[in-house]
TrEMBL record:
Official protein name in the record: Nicotinamide-nucleotide adenylyltransferase
Regions that span the bilayer: none
GO biological process: NAD+ biosynthetic process
Organism the protein comes from: Anisakis simplex (Herring worm)
Cellular location(s): Mitochondrion
Sample GO molecular function, one term: nicotinate-nucleotide adenylyltransferase activity
Pfam families registered for this protein in UniProt: CTP_transf_like
Family, as annotated: Belongs to the eukaryotic NMN adenylyltransferase family.
């Protein structure tokens, strides 16, 4: 029995770059919903995808207008997951805690007769592992007070990934009382234990490899129509894992995506990049009564992307993101 979730109505919030959104982002929502409802008897009423704002530092980050539209297309057929433009329309980086509070206000008004409502952060195990990271300046990546409030008042739904050990990480945090451990739900996806990532999708497109069935068909059509991911801005592959010169974007007459058979990318390739970009003026496209919100902070994409960043508490936040 879990008093935190018993009889609760749950909304799941997953934040990240969605660059592009993949089938694993969507699968994480479905697996989490199934796990929570079967294991704890709660009712998952909504899932929210929130693309990060353009000010999030990542050279390879497409403008939010593209990422938001792809997210909308990815969830077009879903009856309970939707993409929200609140965060990606912000002109500055938004902390995860602030995003969760924003959602709580929205859902409390939207569902006045549903109590209790739990707004929970949906993420991957590698995201939780960043809770103990110390920056090069010797400061903590996460504010302990933020982590305490997130876990105590909102809760985490964590998909185990790779070698991550989220519960061990949580137990190592002295400021998180064991009484709040029940607010953290960790699950495995035995149905589709895959590691499709946005980084691999982008690299495959540049190499002319097919990414069909890795992203929604509507998303794939959008990528092709707008000639996205054919080039990379400031690629930062380590020399040891760079793609060979034979694996490059294939020029075509109309620059559309090509799916020729080319050497496959090493599955261990990762893209690390840092930068700052300016936020476009984006008007939220969703109905605010039903769509509102989400975060960007010391964040990560729950299902497939993890972000690490360093904070400057006075003026700016310099962030590094590692899609995995």
């Amino acid at each position: 029995m879990n008093a935190f979730l018993e009889g609760a109505y749950v909304t799941l919030i997953a934040c990240g770059s969605y660059n592009p959104p993949t089938v694993m982002h969507l699968r994480m929502f479905e697996a989490a919903k199934s796990f929570l409802e079967c294991r704890y008897g709660c009712k998952v009423i909504e899932g929210v995808i929130s693309p990060v704002a353009d000010c999030f530092a990542k050279p390879d980050l497409l403008p939010a207008k593209h990422r938001m539209r792809m997210a909308e297309l990815a969830v077009k057929s879903s009856k309970w997951i939707y993409a929200d433009s609140w965060e990606c329309s912000q002109k500055q980086w938004t902390r995860t805690l602030r995003v969760l509070k924003h959602f709580k206000e929205i859902f409390d008004r939207k569902f006045p007769h549903m109590r209790p409502i739990r707004v929970m952060l949906l993420c991957g195990g590698d995201f939780v592992d960043t809770f103990t990271v110390t920056t090069s300046k010797g400061t903590k990546l996460w504010e302990p007070s933020d982590l305490l409030e997130i876990i105590r008042d909102f809760g985490l739904v964590v998909l185990s990934r790779g070698k991550s050990n989220p519960m061990k990480t949580i137990e190592s945090l002295p400021f998180i009382s064991p009484k709040f451990h029940s607010n953290i739900c960790i699950f495995d996806d035995d149905v589709m234990p895959n590691e499709v990532s946005s980084t691999r999708i982008r690299n495959a497109i540049r190499c002319g490899q097919s990414v069909k069935y890795c992203v929604d068909d509507n998303v794939l059509e959008y990528i092709s129509k707008h000639h996205l991911y054919l080039t990379s801005t400031q690629p930062t592959f380590p020399e040891s894992s760079r793609v060979s010169s034979s694996c490059t974007s294939i020029p075509t007459s109309n620059h559309a995506l090509s799916y020729s058979i080319l050497p496959k990318l090493p599955l261990t390739t990762h893209l690390n990049d840092t930068s700052n970009s300016t936020t476009d003026n984006i008007t939220p496209t969703m109905n605010t009564t039903h769509r509102t919100a989400t975060r960007a902070e010391n964040s990560t994409v729950a299902a497939t992307e993890t972000f690490s960043y360093t904070q400057n508490h006075h003026n700016s936040d310099i962030m590094q993101m590692n899609d995995s």
